[in-house]
Amino acid sequence: MEYDVAIIGGGPGGCATALALKQQGIAKILVVESGCYEAIRIGESIPPDTRLLLNKLGILEDFLQENHETCFGNCSSWGSDTLSYNDFLRNPYGNGWHLDRRRFNAFLAQKAVERGVEVLCGTRVDNCDRIPSEGFQLQLVGENKQTGTVTTSFLVDATGARGSFAKSLGARKLFLDRLICAIAFFQLPPSSHFSKLTLLEAVEYGWWYVAKLPNNMLATVVASEPSIIKETGLHRMENWLAYLKETKHVSKELADCSAIENLSVSLASQTKARMPMVCAAPSFRLDRTAGNSWLAVGDAASAFDPISSQGIYKALWDGLEAAKAITSYLRERRGLEEYESLIASRFDNYLTQRNYFYQMERRWPVSPFWQQRQERTGLEKGDVPAYA
Ligand SMILES: Cc1cc2nc3c(=O)[nH]c(=O)nc-3n(C[C@H](O)[C@H](O)[C@H](O)COP(=O)(O)OP(=O)(O)OC[C@H]3O[C@@H](n4cnc5c(N)ncnc54)[C@H](O)[C@@H]3O)c2cc1C
Fold this sequence. Notes:
By secondary structure, the chain is of the alpha+beta class. The protein has helices spanning 12-23, 50-56, 60-64, 101-114, 164-168, 226-232, 237-246, 249-256, 263-270, 311-332, 336-359, 368-375, and strands at 2-8, 29-32, 45-46, 69-71, 73-77, 84-87, 96-98, 118-120, 123-130, 136-142, 147-157, 173-187, 197-203, 206-213, 217-224, 277-286, 290-291, 294-296, 302-303, 380-381. Strands 5, 6, 12, 13, 14, 15, 16, 19 and 20 form a nine-stranded mixed beta sheet that branches. Strands 1, 2, 8, 9, 10, 11, 17 and 18 form an eight-stranded mixed beta sheet that branches. The structure holds flavin-adenine dinucleotide (FAD).
């Protein structure tokens, strides 16, 4: 089977690229997704101006029908013990959202299918080889280990922070940071009222946030250094819970709605995953995000600190820009350099904001977590950062 564009990864970056390529008139597009949109996905908050991108992709009205949880802003204890509020009341685009990520990802893939994109779920791309006539041959492996090959004129790496294929095509990661997050989901009691704000709290060893999701679920996340997670045992439920109870604001918010008491029931009944879920949350960008007949989008191209809540926005934005670049490349053999410089300059903007944000927290001058965040302000080469 031959495609104009094959996209590896059917997350927000891959699906947005497919949708935007269809708008550009590209006919034969394949998305290969190793999952089936059934597993729990992490990362839920999207800012109000995401509606602009969803509108550009032609899916805003359908997205609004999905009834994800509205988010009216953020409140944070950051640089001070007291909470400060940044509500979206003054935002010209209105509210943001807390997504059910599993449902949101499935929605994007479904929209792509409706526009004529071929989406292969439960299929992994194992390998990609250049072919002499320009383009790539991909080796596919299905859930039952059946294999197959497809060829494509253009390849998009949308595999998330792993960025497996860009790496095999010669791109290297330039790291800024490598946080680890430990996450648990709570089921709220039916009658409870939980704030529609994202709550963020800095602590000596990192930071916590909590966000209310659709279906009365709460996502509660702690982020820290890999070594601190290990020392404190935050990857184990009993320790995670003990540290959570010591927070000032997050624990109060959860206690007010009896969520903590409900934790054991909710973990057993709502998810089959082991809690807390532990995942890497690195910040990096590739030294090259495009090359001869390929480019990378979303977290495969650059990944931001989850505190920015910009990962999904960034993936959708990349998809729109990547589609323009790919179309121009397929028609006139140009457009990829511009795409690369857009990704690099956006990362520079993120870097400035991220550094400013971490410098604001001065309550724990000897804490290794804060010292490292404040000292480490630029990119360094290597698959894993030197300090890891
Ligand atoms: C703890 C944490 C909290 C976060 N919170 C937020 C938040 O609040 N807001 C926000 O906007 N962002 C958040 N993010 C970041 C956000 O989740 C990512 O930026 C976003 O998912 C990137 O989308 P993507 O499509 O590039 O990659 P992904 O969502 O990672 O999708 C990549 C897809 O590729 C598939 N894949 C990988 N390899 C293969 C292969 N070989 N073959 C086929 N398929 C493959 C995977 O199954 C996956 O579905 C958070 C991240 C973390 C770690």
